[in-house]
Specification:
- With 262 residues, this protein is α/β, with parallel strands linked by helices.
- It has a single domain, classed as ADP Ribosyl Cyclase, Chain A, domain 1, CATH 1.20.82.10.
- It is 47% helix and 10% strand.
- The protein is built from 9 helices and 4 strands; from the N terminus they run αααβαααβαβαβα.
- Strands 1-2-3-4 form a 4-stranded parallel β-sheet.
- Helix 4 runs parallel beside helix 9.
- The radius of gyration is 27 Å and the shape is elongated.
- The N and C termini lie far apart (94 Å).
- The structure holds 2-acetamido-2-deoxy-beta-D-glucopyranose (NAG) (3 copies).
- It comes from Periophthalmus magnuspinnatus.
- One of its GO terms (biological process) is positive regulation of B cell proliferation.
- InterPro entries: ADP-ribosyl_cyclase.
- It holds the Pfam family Rib_hydrolayse.
- Belongs to the ADP-ribosyl cyclase family.
């Protein structure tokens, strides 16, 4: 009887030490895992985002082929040729929209209505939208931080991708193409941004919609003359001044035919 009573606290004490031991082991394993995973997490996270958005091995190979092992400021747009060949843009007649400095209002519209698609709504655009990636000379890793910013160098990993993607997207343009520019900035059409797309070589109609968040510029803006000049002979050009509220209204009225938005 006395033996049993004395053994109970002994057992409890044993159990207590086992618990402490297990907790200590778990903490140590946790710390080790945390340290190793943290090192890998950057690359892993990027891989996970890329893989969850995109499941095609060929695209992944072609994507990494463009920049892995290279100085992030020495990746020209053509490095992504293999990628745009592996995941080509589908022509979307009369629905293609380009934009500059009007991102939010345009994406609000394209997310709610099928009338228009921007490059960010396409497969490659969706996969890489808002991501940052780069590698280093001689490295086989992908980094998501410490990469050059958009304006730090011209041929940076991310900017070159969007440059190449815009060019390929423009190449499949057909029918009427819309360009949504910002009427509240001094130069709504910035030629350097579009010339690389070589818009001149494609035979499509260009509808330019100038969005007015504040009434500063109109269709007579000199920069729009430059846009017209860049279009090949025979390409129709028209410009409309559209208040921002009208575009927001269009986004909210799914029953309204797209053609009557503006
Ligand atoms: C970017 O790359 C292109 C193509 O290789 C090259 O012609 C151009 O000079 C480069 N630009 C800069 C600023 O390095
Ligand atoms: C136009 O540009 C201005 C200044 O960058 C910005 O504040 C405004 O939101 C832009 N308008 C649209 C419709 O995106
Ligand atoms: C643009 O395309 C036209 C017609 O295909 C071509 O003649 C011209 O050289 C191209 N320009 C550039 C800068 O690629």
């Amino acid at each position: 009887m006395e033996e049993g009573q004395r053994q109970k606290p002994k057992k409890r004490r044993k159990l207590f030490w086992i618990c402490i031991f297990v907790v200590v082991i778990l903490v140590v394993v946790g710390i080790v895992l945390w340290v190793t995973l943290r090192k890998k997490s950057e690359a892993e996270e990027f891989k996970a985002v890329f893989t969850s958005r995109c499941c095609c091995c060929l695209s992944k190979y072609a994507f990494q082929h463009a920049y892995v092992g290279k100085d992030p400021c020495l990746v020209p747009p053509d490095a992504y040729q293999l990628l745009v060949d592996a995941a080509p843009f589908e022509p979307a007649c009369n629905r293609m929209m380009f934009w500059s400095k009007t991102k939010d209002v345009v994406h609000d519209l394209t997310s709610k209505r099928d009338c228009f698609i921007t490059m960010e709504d396409t497969f490659l655009g969706t996969v890489l939208n808002e991501l940052t990636w780069c590698s280093k000379e001689g490295s086989s890793d992908t980094f998501t931080s410490g990469c050059p910013g958009w304006t730090d160098c011209v041929n940076n990993t991310v900017r070159s991708f969007w440059s190449k993607a815009s060019e390929s997207y423009a190449q499949v343009a057909c029918g009427s193409v819309s360009v949504m520019l910002n009427g509240s900035i001094a130069v709504p059409f910035n030629p350097t941004r579009y010339t690389s797309h070589n818009m001149t070589s494609y035979e499509y109609i260009c509808d330019v919609s100038l969005i007015f968040s504040t009434n500063k510029q109109n269709c007579a803006n000199p920069s729009l003359k430059n846009l017209q000049k860049e279009l090949a002979q025979g390409i129709a050009y028209s410009c409309q001044e559209v208040p921002e509220s009208q575009i927001q209204e269009c986004a909210l009225q799914p029953h309204k035919p797209c053609g009557s938005c503006w």
